[in-house]
Amino acid sequence: MAETATTTRPGAPTSPGELLPTWRRFRLVLLLGFLTALGPLTIDMYLPALPTITDDLHATAAAVQLTLTGTLAGLALGQLFVGPLSDAFGRRVPLLAGIAVHVVASVLCVFAPNLVMLGTLRVLQGLGAAAASVVATAVVRDLFSGNSAARLLSRLMLVVGVAPILAPTIGGFVLRVTEWRGVFVVLAAAGLAILGTTAFALPETLPVEQRRRGGLAGTVRDYGRLFADRAYVGLILVAGLGMASLIAYVSGSSFVFQDEFGLSQQQFAFVFAGGAVGLIGASQVNIQLLRRWTPQRILAAALLTGVAAGALLLVLALTHTGGLLGVLLPLFTVLAMVGLAMPNAPALALSRHGEAAGTAAALLGATQFGVGALAAPLVGVLGVGAVAMAIVVFGGMVAAILTLYVVVRPRRLPTDTIEPTVVVAH
């Protein structure tokens, strides 16, 4: 049943999620956190194994990085399909089907005989994980809007930060007791756990009367309206370019820190965790910053700072100044700024298209992972070293700030992004 939410004070509508009892909101955040974690776990858990896979499958580093690109491409492509399906059939059915695909692909990865098969199955893994990513974002948009959505997305950024901490650490532990194929056994088990939890506890948040029935033509029209919105397109590009900087770090870090600086797999896991701490901390600070400043102001400040830190990273990497710390300190600063930007750019984008939240979230996610997918092989092509990683990280930040000011023009965005009417499904 759908109920129209009432406002708590004149001119300040309440998002439906805010009307939920505290315990239900807490449970919802936990469930969305599980869903949000599936993508990062799939991407990051096997990072410590990349050098080992390179040797075991007799491949080059750049070729092995393409398996990461395959996962990101699957995440991007899958969201373009799952988003409209979730708008037409509700959130639960596409979600559960996608997670099931992820589990099957993870099991098959265990038996992949060569790099081509592994890369193909990683694409399938990404397609399955896409359902979890896009539906989690669509559920946020179903129940929250404006600053409320930005705050919840900041909470979910905590998961995005924690998952990369845990994933390489778990991967490193698995590699101590078994070979790299064991990582995919753990991913299959994680997928099964998430599938069972969401099937049991996640409610449907899109009422039947709000589902879109236009079929393929309606989907094309929805995407057409989204592409016609200059600010929306710019904001999802900003989110994608921020993701590109993050993926450049993710794809290059194991080679930089293990091969170039001689860290062990466990030492790399701890260093990788340090970067995630910056991402986590910034995303949680964002919740407090939203009490004083608008999402667009925070986004602009974060990207400007990220550009400055990225420039310093590139200079220090080129001049071999500062050793490991010379790379880590500016790099962690960039990651912190990505942690500030990533909740705010999506929240601003999604606030413009509540009528097709699944499709809007799909295009957002596809852009994030699609642009990110380009960053991974680019690092490999440039040399799989600190300089190559720094070039792509810095380039992503520069492109993001240019897109914000040239395409989005943040001063023209409305300062009040809360919608006047919201609906909650029970």
TrEMBL record:
User: What Gene3D superfamilies would the database entry show?
Assistant: Multidrug resistance protein D
According to the UniProt entry, the coiled-coil residues are none
Q: Which Pfam families match?
A: MFS_1 (PF07690)
Quick check: keyword Transmembrane in the entry? yes
Against CDD domains, the record matches this protein to: MFS_MdfA_MDR_like (cd17320)
List localization entries: Cell membrane
Keywords, in A-Z order: Cell membrane, Membrane, Transmembrane, Transmembrane helix, Transport
Q: Which residues form the Major facilitator superfamily (MFS) profile domain?
A: 25-413
Question: According to its record, how does it sit in the membrane?
Answer: Multi-pass membrane protein
Q: Where are the transmembrane segments?
A: 28-47, 59-83, 95-117, 123-144, 156-177, 183-203, 231-256, 268-287, 299-318, 324-344, 356-376, 382-408
Family, as annotated? Belongs to the major facilitator superfamily. Bcr/CmlA family.
Q: NCBIfam families annotated for this entry?
A: efflux_Bcr_CflA (TIGR00710)
Q: What is this protein called?
A: Multidrug effflux MFS transporter
Species this protein is from: Dactylosporangium vinaceum
